[in-house]
Amino acid sequence: MSPGAPTAALFGGIFAILIAASLLGFALQRRYAGESTAATIENFNARVRAWWIMVALLGFAFALGKTGVILLFAFASFAGLREFLTLTSTRRGDHWALAAAFFVVLPLQYYLVWIEWYGLYSIFIPVYVFLILPVIAALRGDVTRFMERIAELQWGLMIAVFCLSHVPALLTLPIPGFENRKLLLVGFFVLVVQASDVLQYVWGKLLGRHRIAPRLSPSKTVEGFAGGVVSATALGAALWWLTPFPPLHAALMALAITLMGFCGGLVMSAIKRDRGVKDWGWMISGHGGMLDRLDSVIFAAPIFFHLTRYWWTV
Amino acid sequence: MITRLLAACTIGTARLVTGVRCNWQGCLPEPKPRIYFANHRSHGDFVLIWSVLPSALRKQTRPVAAADYWGRGGLRQFIGERVFDAVLIEREIATRDRDPVAPLAAALDAGSSLILFPEGTRNTSAELLLPFKSGLFRLARACPGAELVPVWIDNLTRVLPKGEFIPVPLLCTVTFGPPLLLEPGEGSMPFRERTRVALLALAPGADA
Description:
The complex is a heterodimer of chains A (314) and B (208). Chain A folds into three domains: 1-64; 67-172; 177-314, no CATH class. Chain A is 74% helix and 0% strand. Chain A is built from twelve helices and no strands. Chain B has one domain: Glycerol-3-phosphate (1)-acyltransferase (3-Layer(aba) Sandwich). Helix content of chain B is 37%, strand content 16%. Chain B has nine helices and seven strands, in the order H-E-E-H-H-E-H-H-E-H-E-H-E-H-E-H. At the A-B interface, helix 3 and helix 4 of A face loops of B.
């Protein structure tokens, strides 16, 4: 089966939702102009506008194929890494190690994905970079808080580069009978994870009473979590035709990535609370930074990648 | 033409490398004569402030630069005078023959705003902010109508620490605080302390 029709259906569906959201935002803005809810509605509209841009970028990357998707996620990694490392407490002695992280490690990781060298891109950062970056930092001779600084740098690279690179790495999986349709698998993954975020938010706003982790995030509730997980799993099952999985397996995959996405949001919130910031950055108007938008993707991507690789590749 | 192109390139590079965000926390960008006074840790400090100003304001905002560094001819003088339109001042008391504040006051009277680093030099110490020199006070006394706007530049020193040549693209912020004026009868030392405290209050983690 050619990938043209499912791709059109995927983006057609997303466009329909975005048009509906834009119209809703426009109507709300006219209805509640000047009232106390105006700020919430303005934020909603800013988020919808940012979604249009993000969907357009993803569509453009899809049109360019594998190279486009890799470049898009390499850029997202760059933006995420700078947000993460801005909040760490690196010192002058880390300058070479930081420069290496941005200008050597990040491009190399995505190059390895591009040449589809699974054996190296899956261990490059956890093994080689893990061992070599502390050497570079140690050679500068600054021992103040050394372990802390090295741990933060390695964490930043794992989160923003290694984990995120597993989204385009989906394109390198050899799935029998699915050779020219792998972009759809990326579409399925990104759509389910992001829909799960939005659905948890919506269910939480509608029914949320009991906070799950009041010290980490005031907006995460038991009701939002349950409603979001159930509806995102159902969405995943309904989108099985984008994937090599039958409907039941698509539902289980969606469940796994939804749960991991939720955990990603929790962990990344804990880091933000520790550093006393509300958002990671200011890149994406209405959402905050790149990592605010991608925290769930980051935690779900490697798990989805390996589950798919274990059960569906030769 | 070439100078405007160079200025645009410099600003573009600064924005790209630092992803700079600006907070107009205590005032709004307004086209009136102002003295922006900022902390100084890096050669890029002035460019970063310039890059966050709206372009209409940027055209009439000039940095105050040391004549002994930026006025020595060659490329540096070209960049300082032609690209950045700097107002040069004599730092060395022993060699200067005229009032160093006069050209600054003239620029303000002509409708320009100024960017000034009242520590007098780049801060390479562990201190957040060095004590202020008297320049800001003398300028405020000469131009009592000009608003003094504190500007805190955060993180640029991590992007390019002194002695390094590869910038690391961490995120920077530029925060503009509420404007101050010289009080009638206020002396140099109390004024220098008050303006320094106002600038320090904008540093991240200062209170909120």
